[in-house]
Amino acid sequence: MRATVIHAPHDIRVEEVPDPVIRRPTDAVVRVLRACICGSDLWPYRGESVVEPGSRIGHEFLGVVEETGSDVARFAVGDLVVAPFVWADGTCDFCHEGLPTSCPSGGDWGDGGTDGGQGEAVRVPFADGTLAALPADAASDERLLTALLALSDVMGTGHHAALGAGVRPGSTVAVVGDGAVGLCAVLAARRLGAGRIIALGRHQARTDLARTFGATDVVAERGEAAVEAVRELTRGQGAHAVVEAVGTEQSMRTALRITRGGGAIGYVGAPHGSGTAVDLRHMFDRNIALRGGLAPAGAYIPALLPDVLDGTLDPSPVFDLTVSLDDVADGYKAMDSRTALKVLIRM
Amino acid sequence: MRATVIHAPHDIRVEEVPDPVIRRPTDAVVRVLRACICGSDLWPYRGESVVEPGSRIGHEFLGVVEETGSDVARFAVGDLVVAPFVWADGTCDFCHEGLPTSCPSGGDWGDGGTDGGQGEAVRVPFADGTLAALPADAASDERLLTALLALSDVMGTGHHAALGAGVRPGSTVAVVGDGAVGLCAVLAARRLGAGRIIALGRHQARTDLARTFGATDVVAERGEAAVEAVRELTRGQGAHAVVEAVGTEQSMRTALRITRGGGAIGYVGAPHGSGTAVDLRHMFDRNIALRGGLAPAGAYIPALLPDVLDGTLDPSPVFDLTVSLDDVADGYKAMDSRTALKVLIRM
């Protein structure tokens, strides 16, 4: 089959690789219908994180079960499924508690001889623990299929951020970051009943989308000016619930400064310098909590899926460019240059 | 009247100071019956924090209302009251939300021309917002009076730590720090229904007290050995709820390493280097939350007071040395040299 391989920074290729086969009785093979490119895929692409040359890449996909191992009980050939961005056994303490990202038997797509998500098919370890079933008729609804793909990562991550930030009905929420995750956090905050949602971002196309998603205010300033703008919108107090969806030192610093005393930061931007901005004394004096991390996206699918299916939750607009697998390198270029927000790969 | 004054590191004196008088209609004057010395009073004593020479000191006291301003409605002359470690107006958004430590009109004892708690009397700003009423007959019960004094700071701080750590019925809890706050966190964790409480500490008298307070296990090791010991006690996973009650780099590092994936650190040790130990990547990968800060002790009194009054919650044993006001300098020496855990000052 063909799959995406990264050889070096900016060197993304689609190559012929071995067809996935069932190796363990708990495996399934999924024929991929849709995959996508994540902001975190840009780290190896930009050389910001090291990868083994020739590594498979991609961790978000949706497709049809093509083959199942003898121990797979929840899925049959032909089932439409979505995979979250980690695989997990579904049986350990952590999986039972809704934290599959901490499953000691689990792993990332592409690790340990697994396939990456950006390819024609994927061997899925622990299929029963990893995959989520989707209704078969969704396969014929292009928009819905795109929205469902977001459950593999960005929508669950936005939801995780909103939960971490403690969004409740009526909350004043601020979202730092206008990438796909930040935008999904806006959606998640609205879904959780936020009274006011302040989106911080400089790219008008993205902040316009944030408004469509439920943002009541947009702050285009950065740094000190952004802090002042949020304070002005919140009677000088800041927001109770703040989402940090970037992971840089500046974004975390901004998040801290706009969080109200007694509030919380839901951080889902993988730390890329943000750790140095965690000013514990500032947090201590104000009782600001920091809660988040790698989103257990798979654990959130049961809660989010009904809303996606009935259309009340629609993250599909975060995908603003669609490429074929052959053109995946163009997709990376578009996301790297920020001409695309999030790239859908149609097989 | 006489009150405790700090002139320089290790220079604590009891001096004649002006008698407190009502300055604003919302003030009350409280004649102090009991005060105490806090671990945080040792910072200026040790020269670890800067104070103006001649500053008043002490922020924990309990006494009898001696005079009230014309706007004081909740208290009358003769009432027995306890004061939390900050004063607050009781009317702002933060006070209403249970976070008097963030009250913009509030302050610390000794600040802004107020009295310190370690003296014969104290002018209490915003008496209605600051003080908590105690039953009059408690004044004749020596043990109870001591237990009630703990509501001014340590017991509320221990409770805040346990809440921050997310202690729930059945939780496995680890408490880093065997000072008075750590011990009160053990009490608080037991009160919240913890299933297992692991106390980390090296001083046997203190860890013995921890056992009396409800600790099921004691880990006397430090650093890497402590981490290993806690992991062994928790099937290699760590504790769901971890209290960090010290504030140093080592204590925070230990707290992080013994927290289970998906767990939380309730930190109440005022940061004295602990910020540098906050490894955000470690937290991110494991979804470890950090929640705590300056305890809103006053807001917790309504919840904790009934349990102290009926004896089910008894922090009085953390006071292991009693001095008179004249001998307060001896009390500081005893706490500084760790020969005393917490010093009660009887007026």
Automatic annotation (TrEMBL), chains A, B:
Keyword annotations: Metal-binding, Zinc
Entry-linked Pfam families: ADH_N, ADH_zinc_N
Cofactor: Zn(2+)
Residue ranges annotated for the Alcohol dehydrogenase-like N-terminal domain, each copy included: 25-127
InterPro entries: ADH-like_C, ADH-like_N, GroES-like_sf, NAD(P)-bd_dom_sf
Superkingdom of this protein's organism: Bacteria
One MF term in the entry's GO annotations: metal ion binding
Limits of the Alcohol dehydrogenase-like C-terminal domain: 180-295
PANTHER family, alphabetized: DEHYDROGENASE, ZINC-CONTAINING, PUTATIVE (AFU_ORTHOLOGUE AFUA_2G02810)-RELATED (PTHR42813:SF2), ZINC-TYPE ALCOHOL DEHYDROGENASE-LIKE (PTHR42813)
Protein name, entry field: Zinc-dependent alcohol dehydrogenase family protein
Taxonomic classification: Bacteria, Bacillati, Actinomycetota, Actinomycetes, Kitasatosporales
